[in-house]
Specification:
CATH class: Alpha Beta
Strand content: 15-25%
Largest sheet: 3 strands, antiparallel
CATH architecture: 2-Layer Sandwich
Number of helices: 2
Mean pLDDT: 86
CATH topology: Pantoate--beta-alanine Ligase, Chain: A,domain 2
Structural class: alpha+beta
Shape: rod-shaped
Strand order of the largest sheet: 1-2-3
Distance between the termini: 82 Å
């Protein structure tokens, strides 16, 4: 007799195990899919904030224009596979703004284009990431 060998369950118990599995498995799968979708939305939110920060940081470099800010932000979004994002820089002509002006970069993206599953929780919603940095030069 081998150590650790499995005993066979009685016939009545096998049916109970199948019923328990049939009840619990869909709930477990639903929880796992929900967690994956929630993690994807958290990843989207962080990606928008990181792209906005990189764009705002670029705007503080002397000689940059609004197109440079948009290009840097879009590169971060492309690297993170964010689809359908809109980038807004305020003020548009920040190069001529006086020292002490806050430069705001806001990025919005639709959740519909950036999810794994077609869930009802994030349909027709948008995520926004915004960063404001003060012009110091």
């Amino acid at each position: 007799m081998a150590i650790g060998s499995f005993r066979q369950l009685p016939v009545q118990r096998r049916g109970a195990v199948m019923v328990e599995t049939a009840v619990c498995l869909p709930v477990l799968v639903l929880l796992i899919l929900g967690m994956l979708e929630a993690c994807r939305m958290i990843y989207l939110q962080q990606s928008l904030k990181i792209a906005a920060f990189e764009g705002a940081r670029t705007s503080l470099i002397p000689g940059t224009v609004s197109g440079d800010v948009t290009a840097v932000s879009q590169q971060v979004l492309d690297d993170r596979s964010v689809q359908g994002a809109t980038i807004t820089v305020d003020p548009i002509n920040y190069e001529t703004a006086p020292v002490g002006t806050f430069i705001s970069v806001e990025i919005t993206a639709p959740c519909d284009q950036n999810h794994f599953l077609s869930t009802v929780f994030f349909q027709n919603r948008t995520m926004t990431g915004e960063v404001q940095l003060m012009k110091e030069f």
